Amino acid sequence: MRQNMTSPFSITRRALLAGMAVLPAFGFATSPLQAQEVATAVANTTGLAVTDDTVKVGILHSITGTMAISETGSVEAEKLAIEQINASGGVLGRKIEFIQEDGGSDWPTFAEKAKKLLVEDKTAAIFGCWTSASRKAVLPVFEQYNGMLYYPTFYEGLEESPNVIYTGQEATQQIIAGIDWVVREKGAKSFYLLGSDYIWPRTANKIARKHIEKLGLKVSGEEYYPLGHTQFNSVINKIKLKKPDVIYAIVVGGSNVAFYKQLKAAGIDMSKEKPLLLTISVTEDEVLGIGGENIAGAYASMKYFESLPNDNNKAFVSSFKGMWGDDSVIGDVTQAAYLGPWLWKAAVEKAGSFDIDKIREASPGIELTTAPEGYVRIHENHHLWSRTRIGHARTDGQFDVIYETEDLIEPNPFPEGYQ
Amino acid sequence: MIGDYTYTEFTSILAMQGFSGLTLFSVFVLMALGLAIIFGQMGVINMAHGEFMILGAYMTYLCSHFFSEYLPSLFSIYFFFAMILAFAASFLLGMLVEWGLIRFLYRRPLDTLLATWGVSLILQQVYRSVFGAREVGVTLPDWLMGSIALTDIIEIPINGLFVMGLTFLITIGVYLAMFRSKWGKSMRAVVQNRTMAGAVGINTKMVDRLTFGLGCGIAGIAGSAFTMIGSTGPTAGQLYIVDTFLIVVFGGAGSLIGTIASAFTISQAQSTIEFFLSGSMAKVLTLLTVVGILMLRPQGLFTLKIRR
Fold this sequence. Notes:
heterodimer; A: alpha/beta; Rossmann fold; 2 domains; seven-stranded mixed β-sheet; five-stranded parallel β-sheet; 15 helices; disordered N terminus; B: mainly alpha; two-stranded antiparallel ribbon; 12 helices; 72% helix; globular; Peripla_BP_I (chain A); ABC transporter substrate-binding protein (chain A); signal (chain A); TAT_signal (chain A); ABC_urea-bd_UrtA (chain A)
């Protein structure tokens, strides 16, 4: 039994499993340990909501308010992962039960609900948050009550909490590879940086600017518009005047729709690539609102696209659509949210325990060979090693993946020389 | 040569910039007209204005689906039907809200603020339940999304022209309705002296209901038109509400001319500053100017003398 706890990846186990029908979407290489193999008293020494057959986790996203647009996909992915884990035997032989709370797009509400999930419900892990603002709001709660948050969004970095596993990319992972690509493949010499006015676009553009200047190229403009801004004609005129090679856009939310529609109406045809548009803020989710025909020809730099051709992803996409309908789309963050429960399961089974401290210790080095994005591994700094890809927007709202980095990119949340 | 640019480039961009200022002006007028009627004529602070606009946008969305499914041959002109439907839907919903809620609150303007805010939350959640939390993409006929290239640099967006034309027509329509029709006369009479208007046989309740409905209906048309330039989602209405109130308050409640003048001032200020500084800065400076002027003229740019 002891051996099972310390080495769930053992060869014999794998051999045993080889003949078993594991869930097609996720043939994760650990064996489902049975409850009787790890007694609850051993696996749970800190009073979490774990019984002999079940374990409670929390899902904390906005299902009402402005952010519901973005967070819905994450909730769906997390529920899918939980259902699949349960179908394949649960975590340490225990079925996952989730308690869902609504952050209501309001940051103090997030903190309050996080406290409720940790203190009253004693959930063993929480999958949630989307905006950096909500993550910053719950952070003190997680650190005070020692919880574990699996956070799915690509974000600005500059953070490394012992109580958070960041399953999305931090800014340097997403940005640098994208800029290198556009410089190498498209011969870009000048960039116009544009974003919504809050921490993520500003930090991201700071990194982008440093990198562009390091390469000896030119930033011909940098601008921010308030969240929710809907009139971009002036900046479009400025872009026309300055004629950059690349529009580097980090516009979010409703502004996104306005920006791309007005860009098209002003006669900037992205498929001519004069200028070319590269974004890090438009996933398949956003394209639903923008309309594929308005953004076709643009490039996005992300770690995941729904159209990725690998087998893991095909299985993931078909089970996601099976559960949530054929019309649903899967963006980068949705996929990252899907990784959360699986990474948690792997950590719990490696540690042989639900205790937060043991999960924290077990997490670095955990790898998923069956992630839809391919392969990921948790770094010492709680972020994921991952590849960055370039997608070329099609009119049907999907992206053609035209490039991916050869190696996994090391997460570097505190990039020196970029701050 | 001016700076790094040739003379032609510079003048072309000036022309383009002038055009985008005018587009912004039309957008502002279209947004604010409905609210100006409701706030100006009835004293009701309609916080659900944005949601009435989005109702129009959703009607357009439904129309675009209907036409592409059943009447693809007419798809290129579906937008006109969509606007009529948008007007009808918001007009009816507006009358319903007036009948069910607002008419009990006429003597308590601050309570209308709370009540209509509640209405806006309810509508947002209804949209979310019916259409989903995500934004929907409204497919527009190609001719609306194109542009007319006059020179290499000057390209006039057709949707901008469309919004301008629409704003012009609706403003004329509102003017005729308010100042040249029997209903307009009754409405102005009710605003000036409710008791007396009632005494001479005007059905003041009906006038209120129609006025509120008309304001909401115009918001619906605006929302329908804005599917060309903005997003359609449950909370997208919130993007417009602040600007709308700003314009109406700055223009002076109750004055149609004031609303237009204020939309013009704010749009020109914003688009000019946006061009020379950055977007967020433009917003800050515009708001500062408005606050400054309102401190000197609390009643707004234009005022109407009325007896309360």
